[in-house]
Structure formats: structure tokens, C-alpha cells
Design a protein that fits this description.
The complex is a heterodimer of chains A (149) and B (151).
Chain A: E1 4-8, H1 13-29, E2 32-39, H2 42-52, H3 57-78, E3 83-89, H4 92-103, E4 107-111, H5 126-134, E5 139-142
Parallel strand pairs in A: 1-2, 1-4, 2-3, 4-5
Chain B: E1 10-14, H1 19-35, E2 38-45, H2 64-82, E3 88-94, H3 97-104, E4 110-114, H4 128-136, E5 141-144
Helix pairs in contact in B: 1-2, 3-4
Classes of the chains: A alpha/beta (149), B alpha/beta (151).
Chain lengths: 149, 151
């Protein structure tokens, strides 16, 4: 039933929780995982570099992204799950949706952002909200681990 | 029966009689079949709300709870036929689904909802119930699309 799980990750705690859920599910179902990380346009990197005076911002973001995918890959390997790593660039929600459609994913797994909690209200996150609204596949939303107080 | 000692993962599904909810229930049953989980189908019902000086509802003898129960049983029977090996129990709860479902999901491993229920407005892509569930459920939430024609 579910043979292709598209896992959308960034470097947030929720994304790591989503990765764990996706890998567990894939192990239980014998499904494959495609882990997708979308790096925002280099336009942003260039702007960051200009603003911070650090020319290697883009490069460091690439490294951070690839370490997230490394983490997912090692998680999957330990569970005997077949995982492909995909690094895209551009608008995250759009990239995730296009990838899900092209690969004919049965399920999208994505983390619920733990940022921007306003007035105690949990916040889904803009990219996750976009994916939820426009995905043609079922979307599994995973909350970040509860904050330690 | 074996509820207290049942150690199988629990999947909660919101049902409201809509096609989207039916798709959510079918997805949950398929998931449960594949993973050895059990399913709890939940319908939340409410009295209709009127605002301002409206005439009384034409028929106050409607038993909303009984109607909800029938809608739930019907959905479960249909989906159950396709997944005879999956244990599906039911709950009929009074309240707003966006509040009831996250609460019911407190002891659950997964909550499954349709992207829209019966209150679908075309311009609202994600319904208020699925939205509330994604925001407030303590467990992972799956939002399932109903049958929809793709160009």
C-alpha cells in the first residue's frame, strides 16, 4: 500500500522527529524513503553573504543541509531501510510537492515547525502548511519532541 | 473487550459522513492492516448553532447523536468489508471535531483525518477540523485527500 515515502527535512528538531517516524514506518512497511532537503535559492545566500560579510554562507548552508541528510541516511541504514538523498534548491514547499508528484510518492512525511510559537499557540510552519494544503498525497505531520523545561 | 490490555498501536480516525472522511478511514484501515495496529473511528456531533434572531430550527426532534451513530456505523461497515482483518471500534462523542479529535488522540499513536469534511468551502483548501488536528494533536497526524480528479 505504501511503498514510497517522501521525507521532507530541514535542520529543525521536528524534521529529525519526522525522519525517525518515516524510517520506522518504512521499516514496518518495507517501503523506500526519499529524503528531500530543499535549500532556498542562492539569492538568499548571496544576500546573507552581503549582509554578514561572510562569503562562505552559502557553502556553510550546503554543509548543514548535507549533514541533515547524512543523519537521515544513517538512521535509515540502522533500520535496514533503503533511502535516497535528494538535495534541491528553490522554494521548499514547491520543491517537495513537485518531487512527491514526480516520484509518485504514497505518503509525504514532514515535521511541524517548532519555531514562532505565538501566544502559546503551536505553529505549523509556512512550508508545512503549504505542503498540507497542496499535496495530492496523504501528508503525515510530526510534531517536534516536547521542549524540556 | 480487550481494550485495557490491547498493546497494538492505536490509530484514531475522524469520521463525519463525508467522502474525505471515508478516504481517511480507508487509509487508516490499510495502514493498520500493514502495521498491525487497531483503529478507532470517532464521530463528533454538535447541535446546530443559530446566530441572532433566527426562527427556531424547523425540526427539533432530530436525534443528532443517533444520526451520527448511523453515519459512523455505515462508514465502518463499508471500510471494514475491504479490511476484514482490522479491528475497528467506534466512539460517538458530543463536541466540535477539531477539539474532540486531538483530545481522543492523547493515547493514540496516530491521528488520521480527511483534508475536508462536510463543511468544505472551495476556497479553503484545508478544513478547520484537519487544521485544528494538525495544530493540537499530541501525536503524528495524517491528512488524507479524498478522491479527486487530477488533470
Amino acid at each position: 500500500m505504501i511503498t514510497r515515502i517522501l521525507l521532507a527535512v530541514d535542520d529543525s528538531p521536528a524534521a529529525l522527529a519526522a525522519a525517525r517516524t518515516a524510517v520506522e514506518l518504512a521499516a514496518a512497511l518495507g517501503a523506500r524513503v526519499r529524503a528531500v532537503h530543499v535549500l532556498r535559492d542562492h539569492v538568499l545566500s548571496n544576500a546573507l553573504a552581503a549582509a554578514t560579510g561572510q562569503a562562505d554562507v552559502g557553502e556553510r548552508r550546503d554543509v548543514a543541509a548535507s549533514s541533515v541528510l547524512d543523519h537521515v541516511a544513517s538512521l535509515a541504514r540502522r533500520s535496514g531501510v533503503d533511502v535516497e538523498r535528494w538535495q534541491l534548491e528553490g522554494d521548499p514547499a514547491r520543491g517537495i510537492l513537485a518531487q512527491a508528484r514526480a516520484w509518485r510518492a504514497d505518503l509525504i512525511v514532514i515535521g511541524k515547525s517548532d519555531q514562532e510559537r505565538r501566544a502559546g499557540e503551536p505553529y505549523v510552519g509556512g512550508e508545512t502548511a503549504n505542503v498540507l494544503e497542496f499535496a495530492e498525497q496523504p501528508v503525515l505531520v510530526v510534531a517536534p519532541p516536547p521542549a524540556r523545561r | 473487550m480487550m481494550a485495557a490490555t490491547d498493546t497494538r498501536p492505536l490509530v484514531i480516525v475522524g469520521v463525519d459522513g463525508s467522502a474525505q472522511a471515508r478516504a481517511a478511514l480507508a487509509w487508516a484501515a490499510g495502514y493498520a492492516e500493514a502495521t498491525g495496529a487497531r483503529v478507532r473511528a470517532v464521530i463528533a456531533w454538535e447541535y446546530p448553532v443559530g446566530f441572532g434572531y433566527l426562527p427556531p430550527a424547523p425540526n427539533l426532534n432530530v436525534d443528532f447523536e443517533a444520526d451520527a451513530t448511523v453515519a459512523l456505523e455505515q462508514a465502518v461497515n463499508e471500510v471494514g468489508k475491504e479490511h476484514p482483518d482490522v479491528a475497528i471500534d467506534t466512539r460517538v462523542v458530543h463536541g466540535f471535531a477539531a477539539r474532540v479529535l486531538p483530545e481522543m488522540a492523547r493515547d493514540a499513536d496516530l491521528l488520521v483525518v480527511g483534508s475536508h469534511g462536510r463543511g468544505a468551502l472551495t476556497e479553503m483548501l484545508l478544513g478547520s477540523v484537519s487544521h485544528g488536528c494538525v495544530h493540537h494533536a499530541p501525536c503524528p497526524v495524517v491528512v488524507v485527500r479524498g478522491e479527486r480528479a487530477h488533470a
